[in-house]
Amino acid sequence: MTRFSPFDTTLWYATATPPVETTALQGAVKADVCIVGGGYTGLTTALDLARAGVSVVLLEREEIGFGGSGRNAGHCTPTFTHYSLPQLRTMLGEPWAERLIARQTRANDRVSSMIEQYQIPCEWQQNGYVMGAPYPGMMKTIEEKVRTYNAVGARTRVLDRQEVERVTGSPRFYGGWLHEEAGHLNPLGYSRGLARAVIQEGGAVYTHSPVKACDRAGAGWAVSTPEGKVLADKVIFATGAYTVGGWPKLDRTFKIQKVFVAATQPLSDEERRSVLPQNTTIHDGRGDIYVYKYNAEGRIVVSMFPMGRRGRDMGYTRTVMSDRLKWLHPQIRSEIRWDYFWFGELDMQYRTVPRLYDLAPGVVALTGLSGRGVPTGSMLGGILSEWAKGIPPAELSLKLEPLTAAPFYMNYGPQLTLRYYRVSDWVKTKLAGAAVPPHA
């Protein structure tokens, strides 16, 4: 029995364009490359390879976008989480850090290009992302973000208190960080559009085809499903947090961090004129995050991490979300109704950057996106397709490394970190004499 929440309760399942018609794999097929996993990473890898004339077969255990690529909140911000760019350089070393930074910070160029080229209907809006400063002392961190991200070619700037209120519609911030290249979309619509593009370019996509084994077959590999088999020269596992079988111990390379997403009723036209008037994505600036944006219907879509009662007691959880939203935007006078509520799972790494594993000659796996789904999954397809086309490992943007289990402390590390952030933010806010949000 899988641990995953029902897929068809999500807002995206209710509003995305229908999927391209696919079937389960039956019988034996041959391919240069077999990709396991129908999320952004697998789909963009398959698309790159198909466009290059490489024969590719993609296998998905459920349906396209069933995992994080169809459950996330739809934010597309080409940044790193938790670690600053200088910290990443120290942690990853060169040339790996600079290569990955270049890929990630330009990831939205890739997303936008694929959406435009294949006319993917996914509510794509590239109106920027704002991380607010909930207390004055955070402005120093924001200024450093502007300096370091702009130094690698990103378009970001500092917002003062008046500007951040004009852009977000919230009076609660002392300033903010505006990333002009960020966007948001319907994540399932994007996944389904990528699958359609793969097929359009000549790739094969099979759904409801769980991988049972991956075994040596002559000079290549045999990837087996209940009713079929793919004979391929190379195999890529791109199953992320929704890894079930396929390769021994692959599901031990990360630890699960749950996240929940909820969507309100459509706000009135009057409310929309003053709440997120520029249709940006907003991060309230706290370590215990509250991130939100509109969908095409005018619903506010919010994501948070479970903590204590939050995420377990649904009545309490909805109260927390409503109180925080109305605190951030006092101009919302109507009662907040949460029409959709669902859970997703993140494949967390302690470094919060993906890991590329060398499983066997001609077989790799990639896990550990750590919640940076849309832009990160999209840019990773470029790295994996380069590996499949024979680019030497020393020239890739991720270091190939042996399969390694996530450390034991990751069982509790993410939750402890969230709790630390929550206390730290409360202390800093109180010391600054700033207003503390409800339930903080």
Automatic annotation (TrEMBL):
Q: Does the keyword Oxidoreductase apply?
A: yes
Q: Does the keyword Oxidoreductase apply?
A: yes
Which GO-annotated molecular functions does the record name? oxidoreductase activity
TM region positions: none
Q: Which SUPFAM superfamilies match?
A: FAD/NAD(P)-binding domain
Per its UniProt record, what Pfam families does this chain match? Answer: DAO
Keywords associated with the record: Oxidoreductase
- Superkingdom: Bacteria
Residue limits of the FAD dependent oxidoreductase domain? Answer: 32-387
| Gene Ontology CC terms | cytoplasm
Kindly provide the name given to this protein in its UniProt entry: FAD-binding oxidoreductase
